[in-house]
Design brief:
By secondary structure, the protein is of the alpha+beta class. It starts with 8 loop residues before the first strand and ends in a 14-residue tail after the last helix. It has 26 helices and 25 strands. Mean pLDDT is 86; it is low at 1-61 and 402-409. Residues 374-692 form the Penicillin-binding protein transpeptidase domain.
């Protein structure tokens, strides 16, 4: 007798074929283990708890809070420092939260009929479905049926969308008995805590429908341009049909025919279950898809969609480094994009707009030369401005003159390179004489007073060995002053005001250049260029050219470093945010980890000398002339700072400050350092800072510089 002619056994869930019977006996151990779960599904939930714990793990019944009250992903909003101006949003899911009474019966009926017809009868796990799937899968040798109830599917999708690492995402949906047992355990426990209506509502608010739409509210808008309450039966069926595979049944970007076949299947299930009459089903199947596609209101723009892209980009990089928001960058980013934070940044939009205008006035967007500025608040480290003559954009297809060169990575006018803040790939730009500040600070720390006088020739042969080159005499570094007329006795006021190179090289020789490097490091200067780092780590005492700013740095680093001076020596690492408020209303304050990097008197003495370049005038000594008189003329208040020009005018800088703001600006060609800015562009960073600090003083003209009582004579 053939297998096909043998009597077929009958069970409460249907007939078992001979092929299925053999498969079941062949895999008795697996079936027994899995059968425990099925048996538990028949027990009262309180009895099932203990059994599930034995089958699965000890934590299988520790119901996570998010399953009962799921933290539906919500975009985070970044505000300006005023707390009201939105400058960016961060979110990766378009979602419209609905209450149960906002979801039409046609949607819930379609879902139950298609995904779980026994939904209102079982307690989270459907015994009939489990056994049917078990028998089928054993016979097929695969996992063609999953027997997942709506409650179990809801558990899985919540675990997936609350996952923050690739491993957690994979674990939430891996096909293993342990995972299935845990899912069942959660489902049983969940139905003790939630009503059927609550489960349906949460499920339909979180499930993905394709084309960027999460939840039925978003899906109704994306596919039909309407709210769910206005959906027809056929439209409801089409949307529910997408749940099984949004890509395979996508009627917008995929196959409308496949979508209609799937929709009709859902309608047929609604008729089979009794939610529709045969006539109603026939009418629904007769309808066309009648799509009215809409763009998903995707809030994932972040820096790209912001008018303040460079600041927003820096903020996101900063956020991703904050350990308080998770153990990894993936966790932190997920919380930013899904946590619904209301974040108040440090960006002053009025000053930012004034700074952008000042930058564009000197060098409009589209120039090959990047001109940018950063403003940092002394005493807090708050970044108030990040302005540059570039567009923050991924679209760099038409950038620069050499787009035919596949290796060319032009940054004008569009770029996402952190030109103002730097990273591992952007070391920055040589800062020139603005680095003389660190040598002066180190000398003051060594007890040399401001009136330390040194005869300074036009060219000076130093003790530093540099090998052959334009700035070498033999193999010694022998820098020159800017003009042959700069010869004579100088002190810190006059040497700093006129930017006398040979004065500061000799000052560094007296104290040791390594001490100047140490001061720079204490004030947050980072050495991103490998050549600079090699000197600093291996032989700082020989790094003489450091004094005159051959080191590459960024406007953010320089603004933060100089901000320590009006703050009486307190250095605050730059910070882009003031606070964040969670969905539960808890406010988390952010504060920079400030440090007394310099003594009060050293800082005040340096400020007094730094008043000379702007011709604001020193309080404790006498200035001659300054290299940036336009800054003192523009700012209607106390102002100090320092110009920075490199050899051959490859870059140009100015770093200046008032009692309550420090601004750094540079001009360079970040894509081709050999493209020198030339004499025509010298002074433009100082001009920009002059306008920025003038605007800042008009907005917040408070405070004064306190003259030093020590380290003067």
């Amino acid at each position: 007798m053939s297998d096909s002619s043998k009597p077929v056994a009958q069970t409460w869930f249907g007939p078992i074929t001979a092929v299925q019977r053999r498969a079941m006996f062949a895999l008795v151990p697996v079936a027994v283990a899995f059968g425990l779960v099925v048996g538990l599904a028949f027990l009262p939930v309180t009895s099932a708890f203990g059994g599930l714990a034995k089958v699965g793990s000890e934590t299988v019944l520790e119901l996570p809070d998010e399953l009962v009250l799921p933290p539906a992903p919500e975009a985070s909003t970044l505000y300006a420092s005023d707390g009201t101006t939105v400058i960016a949003t961060f979110g990766d899911q378009y979602r419209v939260q609905l209450e149960f009474d906002q979801i039409p019966e046609s949607v819930t009926n379609a879902l139950v009929a298609t995904e779980d017809s026994n939904f209102f009868e079982h307690n989270g796990v459907d015994p009939e479905g489990v056994m049917r799937a078990l028998v089928t899968n054993i016979a097929d040798g695969g996992t063609s049926e999953g027997a997942s109830t709506i409650t179990m599917q809801y558990v899985r999708q919540v675990l997936s969308y609350t996952a923050t690492t690739p491993d957690e995402v994979a674990a939430a949906s891996e096909v293993t008995i342990d995972r299935k047992v845990q899912e069942m355990g959660y489902a049983l426990a969940l139905e003790e805590e939630m009503t059927k209506q609550e489960i349906l509502t949460n499920y339909l608010n979180t499930v993905y429908f394709g084309n960027g739409a999460y939840g039925i509210g978003a899906a109704a808008q994306v596919y039909y341009g309407k709210v769910p309450a206005d959906l027809t039966v056929a439209e409801s069926a089409m949307l529910v049909g997408l749940i099984q595979s949004p890509s395979n049944y996508d009627p917008i970007n995929g196959s409308s025919e496949a979508a209609q076949v799937r929709r009709d299947h859902v309608v047929n299930r609604m008729v089979d279950v009794g939610f529709l009459t045969s006539a109603e089903g026939e009418a629904a199947r007769a309808e066309g898809l009648n799509l009215n596609p809409q763009e998903a209101n995707n809030t994932s723009g972040g820096a790209i969609d912001s008018d303040y892209g460079f600041f927003v980009d820096y903020f996101e990089q900063w956020w991703n480094q904050q350990a308080d928001f998770g153990d990894s960058e993936e966790v932190r980013k997920a919380r930013l994009y899904r946590g619904g934070y209301e974040i108040v940044s440090t960006l002053d939009v009025d000053l930012q707009d004034a700074a952008q205008e000042a930058v564009e006035k000197q060098k409009p967007t589209g120039s090959e030369y990047a001109l940018g500025s950063v403003v940092v608040e002394p005493g807090t480290g708050g970044i108030q401005v990040m302005a540059v003559n570039r567009n923050y954009s991924n679209d760099t297809s038409d950038n620069g003159p050499n787009t035919s060169n596949s290796e060319y990575k032009g940054s004008y006018p569009n770029t996402t390179n952190p030109l103002l803040s730097g990273n591992s790939a952007v070391a920055g730009y040589q800062a020139g004489s603005s680095f003389k500040m660190f040598t002066m600070l180190a000398a003051l720390e060594e007890g040399l007073p401001l009136d330390t006088t040194i005869y300074s020739p036009y060219q000076y042969t130093s003790k530093y060995i540099v090998g052959d080159g334009e700035a070498s005499c033999g193999n010694h570094w022998c820098p020159k002053n800017a003009s042959k007329g700069e010869v004579g006795n100088y002190n810190m006021w006059t040497g700093f005001g006129e930017s006398v190179n040979t004065y500061f090289v000799q000052l560094a020789e007296r104290i040791g250049v390594e001490k100047a490097i140490n001061v720079a490091e204490r004030l947050g200067i980072k050495f991103r260029a490998q050549e600079d780092l090699n000197f600093v780590q291996n032989s700082p005492e020989t790094f003489g050219p450091f004094v005159l700013g051959v080191t590459q740095t960024t406007p953010l680093d320089m603004a933060a470093a100089y901000a320590a001076l009006p703050a009486d020596g307190v250095y605050c690492p730059p910070i882009p945010a003031a606070s964040a408020t969670t969905l539960t209303g808890e406010t988390i304050p952010f504060e920079s980890e400030c440090d007394q990097a310099l003594s009060v008197e050293v800082a005040r003495a340096a400020v007094d000398a730094a008043r000379c370049p702007t011709e604001y005038g020193a309080a404790a000594g006498t200035c001659t002339w300054g290299t940036a008189p336009q800054v003192g003329a523009a700012v209607d208040g106390p102002v100090a700072g320092k110009t920075g020009t490199t050899d051959s005018n490859s870059t140009n800088w100015f770093v200046g400050f008032t009692p309550n703001a420090a601004a750094a600006a540079f001009i360079a060609d970040p894509d081709s350092p050999q493209n020198l800015v030339g004499k025509a562009n010298l002074g433009k960073p100082a001009n920009a800072v002059a306008d920025i600090l003038a605007a800042q003083w008009d907005m917040n003209g408070e405070g004064d510089f306190t003259p030093p009582e020590e380290l003067v004579h």
